[in-house]
Amino acid sequence: MTDHSVPVDDVYDLVGVGIGPFNLSLAALCDGVPGLRTLFLDRKPAFSWHPGLLMEGTVLQVPFLADLVTMADPTSRWSYLNYLREHRRLFPFFFSERFHIPRREYDHYCRWVAEHLPSCRFDAEVTAVEWDGAAEAFAVTHRSADGSAARVLARRLVLGVGTVPVVPGPLRPLLTGEHAGRVLHSADYRTHRAALAALDDVTVIGAGQSGAEVMLDLLRHQDGEGRGGPYVRWLARTPAFAPMEYSKIGLEHFTPDYIRYFRGLPEATRERLVREQWQLYKGVSEETLGEIHDELYERTIGGGRPRADLHPGVEVTAARPAGGDGGGGGYVLTCRHVQQGTEFEVRTSAVVAATGYAAVRPAFLDALEKLVDWDDKGRYRVDGTYRVALDATVTGSLYVQNAEMHTHGVGAPDLTLGAWRAATILNDVAGRTVLEVPERTAWTTFGAPDAPAEAAGVPR
Question: Are 29 and 433 contacting, i.e. CB atoms less than 8 angstroms apart?
Fold first, then answer.
């Protein structure tokens, strides 16, 4: 039931919960739209984007044009190019000839936008969301850092709460207590980076970009002869440490055309495709793989052997402290080679699980649980405008961002589609075309042709 002891602060056309890049994109595109009142809430004290992996030298895996607004509105004042202009960095950026920008600068760019948008409110943790039938709006209760609570009404609600780190089952019991900092997810790597670099042996699990970057960073903590710094071991279930698909035609999987095609497929086919397309979103950039190879090559000059091992096709089936309950003696990992079916053990001082992220249902939605039309796996049913299917008694709209891979495909977590998706939501919220979104964006026809082939030319 709605807590009426908390006064209603205001009524908004749209309230966003969570201020990551995707909801920040929506906030930026909504800015200045006549007649639209918006509010975006986040429990953090300020914007931050994967702070545990903001190491020097890491770059965004998408071009700078995939900023918060450009792919939907290149004239927006919140573009990355305008950020450079405001920070007197346009000429240095021009001379650097960069297409892929430093992650640290992308984080700084997003913070600049968040700090200047009046609709963004931090230190505001959403604790409950309910449907208020009398007001025909969602009642959103949020609490500030000083403990005071407020309630706003939202005719439409968009969830951009992000994803949470996923850790393999055998490692989960070792994430807390005396093991903290020795067994961790890569999301916390930067916090424990110096301590890990001082250990004798570190094992990295996961073949994606994060795993590769942690592996490379630890290798660089070894001295030129490869004797100082930790011995580094890289394990992954995937059959290879493979590059991410980055061909010009392959990238068309990250277009609205592919989303429309994917949405029309049977559910079982969609599930299979997401698993099979892992290289589209779980691979490693060729540049990072090349840098790892270069580091290992340096270690072999003069006949030496690098203090490193790379093991693809391996899953961790069990983990235990090597010296009893504490983590001071290191850890023993029981591993299984997937293709050979053989088992072996690894002893290591620490484990970094670069094993990805997953969407979760936030606890503040508990009061709406019976009003959401969940699928048979407990996931949102999401339509083409990113609206969640709700009970007919709910006249408001609920939208999600980056919780719809099962319905929209591998582009869901990709920054390339962030501004386009935000514009799609904005147009639906406004009930009119605020921003034009293209009808055709790819050369590829993903399904069977429904009309005779046309003469060569630009995409329809």
Answer: no
